[in-house]
Design goal:
474 residues, alpha/beta, Rossmann fold, six-stranded mixed β-sheet, five-stranded mixed β-sheet, 16 helices, 47% helix, binds guanosine-5'-triphosphate, binds magnesium ion
Length: 474
Amino acid sequence: MTTTNQERPLAVLVGVQLPGVDDVEHAADLAELGRLVHTLGFDVIATVSQRRSALAAAAVLGEGKLKELAELTGGTGVVPSGAPERKNKARARRAAESGEDDEDGELDGDDGEDEEDGDAVSGAGGAGQAARRATVVAVDHDISPSQARNLERATGAQVLDRAGVIIEIFHRHARSREAKLEVEIARLNYVAPRLRETGGGGDRQRGGIGGKGAGESALELDRRKIRDRIAELKQELASVQREQSTRRALRQGQRRVALVGYTNAGKSSLMRALTGSEVLVADKLFATLDTTVRALHPEVRPRILVSDTVGFIKKLPHDLVASFRSTLDEALEASLLLYVADASDPTFRDQLGVTRSVLSEIGANEVPSRLLLNKVDRVPEDERDALRLEFPEATLLSAKTPADVAALRESIIAFFEGSMVEAELFLPYAKQSLIGEIYENARVLSEEYGDDGGRLAVRAHPAALDRLRSLLAR
Ligand SMILES: Nc1nc2c(ncn2[C@@H]2O[C@H](COP(=O)(O)OP(=O)(O)OP(=O)(O)O)[C@@H](O)[C@H]2O)c(=O)[nH]1
Ligand SMILES: [Mg+2]
């Protein structure tokens, strides 16, 4: 699906292949960054990659590569020396010097590797785009504010690192009040330390350009404003979350299953197929940022709720993990987690590893789970056999194959059936209004009415029974 048109701005990807990262992983990381950048609305015209023992301290790439990069963006290709940042000159100079040292020390290595990587600048745009310059440089690492600033000065383009790209996508895709607040907090946390060197604070410091002291305090002022704003947003978030937990309490004891997994694995597609709902499905990374909850369809009694959740990605900025915790918490209240993986993606094992580690970080490794290897319609038959051997406990399926979805639905029902117990509930006539609640949360096997009320034989989940009993006892 190429939506290339002349309007879309162009971007170049930058990646350093560090020791211990093999070619396949490096290429996959860059391809993923490319999809992220594409999701942000850019067309990627080239990738500049280099093997190094570490990121160059000054501007990520070595001198030669920096020049290659600058040709694609129309910059000078050199980090202007002797013109350190507005403030803290000594520090900036130290950073630049150590950067030069670093590069001197590696120059030989770079030369050799540049040759080896002779084709590492790969154009993807074709002749038609040769004349257009990239306006964004996306770096596949977390870089320091001063590295970003130096890269900006050498390329003349806007520079984003991986965390910045992901935060920007989250920012655009957030829909619910809760997601918007969470993303805004993460974004401000990301921006605050970058105010000094990226010039992000430049506009705000118009008044402070005169004396250094004034500039410094203007910066401090900006930072304090950001801190205050974060505190305000956190308060607002807490109140939104209180409302949500009330709503959640109402769902307590209900039978719930959550779809979790790497971004683009097909969670929303399965959600749609299982619930007949119209949740957003898109070939975009992080299409879904809000947890949606819908009932399994056709309905079963008591009903089973399915939650769709935000996807994971490698090197997810830590702030976003923290901020999406509550969004995920909702899913974690599920009795069953369905791990969805895109089996047609050669890197899905890594993706599964990321999913597992994020979920265990937030304490979800205790919840019973099933592994779903999705998109097998794109996997050749012999590879499917290999997958069955490698993941004997997994279900191979395609969200696009109705029979697969029906089988998944049956296995979900069977899972909950196994955890239901039979019990008797006494419903006094004075509490008749609770009958709807009982039918909603339990399967009523028989009803027998006497003088004082009804005796209902039911089958339900133990947590649902507890809840019904406490309602009846009130
Ligand atoms: N061929 C094929 N494509 C699928 C299948 N399941 C999902 N897709 C496609 O994969 C892309 C991503 O699907 P989504 O359901 O949006 O993925 P997601 O896991 O919700 O992604 P995020 O919300 O970004 O985390 C869409 O283009 C879907 O049409 C499948 O079983 N087979
Ligand atoms: Mg989705």
